[in-house]
């Protein structure tokens, strides 16, 4: 049975660490690979990324697999959360072996951050190594194939989508070949996730399944958003992060192609995208459990197309699962509160 989440790729687990209250509105999310790691790649298209260990994922370089990927709040400061994940992995001998002793390993933990500084009221309240450890411990404690909590949790806690409250969402699909493709997305975009003329979500319009909100509901929502924007002042920096994963046996170069085409899923659901004030980053993971059809040179195409599709659906789910915030750091209404569930979940 599937749960329509990243954890439908067998072996992957997801854990969140969430900090709210007393100036906090941030957190960290860890995607934990099965022991032995997963093939990994990355594609960065935003103009202001905050990342760690992404060069190690270049197919031309040494590292073949990674044990975990970290998505975190706190901008560049929050990348410190990856050190907590590294320590946890080292204690278990998981990483690139660099000595005769099995305990002599260097865990390669790619990480990327979203800008959420000060959204809880305290600019210095941001994730650190202890937050990363809490998130990886939560991932390890989860049952295989468990549902992934969505909305204002983990790295999505302080996320904002344009003038709306953002969050974290996940989605998956199973191809006719039996291969699973799934995504986890932190929606913290400078661009908008909804059509300004109607209030419909771009991601749902792309799926052809959205009834438009009434004119009265949309006008009331626009007034609320204008009031919130006036209170918040100049727009801050942003970033949308994603992990797209598959159980297919693909190469590092093919995984990099998957990370690149998955950005199309962001572009369908967020407009504009990949701005200088964004740090949009997509990681790709492949566990290698299912072979591609050797006789079909275009077998990867179905995975590439599905990767973009599940990213779009994960963005819709993140926005719909988000909850409104009205605090010392700002005011961000949630889509569901404004539009009353028009259209349903992605």
What would the keywords be for this entry?
single chain; about 350 residues; alpha+beta; six-stranded mixed beta sheet; five-stranded mixed beta sheet; 8 helices; 17 strands
Short account of what is shown:
The chain is α+β, with helices and mostly antiparallel strands. The model has no long low-confidence stretch (mean pLDDT 94). It is 28% helix and 25% strand.
Layout of secondary structure:
Blueprint: E1 13-21, E2 24-32, E3 38-44, E4 51-52, E5 65-66, E6 68-72, H1 75-78, H2 81-91, E7 96-97, E8 105-106, E9 111-113, H3 129-141, E10 160-161, E11 164-165, E12 167-174, E13 180-187, H4 202-207, H5 215-232, E14 241-248, H6 252-269, E15 281-290, H7 300-321, E16 325-327, E17 330-332, H8 335-339
Parallel strand pairs: 6-9, 14-15
Antiparallel strand pairs: 1-2, 2-6, 3-5, 3-15, 4-9, 7-8, 10-11, 12-13, 13-14, 16-17
Helix pairs in contact: 2-3, 6-7
Describe this protein's structure.
There is one protein chain. The chain has 346 residues and is α+β, with helices and mostly antiparallel strands. 28% of the residues lie in helices and 25% in strands. It contains 8 helices and 17 strands. A 6-stranded mixed β-sheet has the order 5-3-15-14-13-12. β10 and β11 form a beta hairpin. α2 packs across α3 and α6 crosses α7. It is globular. It starts with 12 loop residues before the first strand and ends in a 7-residue tail after the last helix.
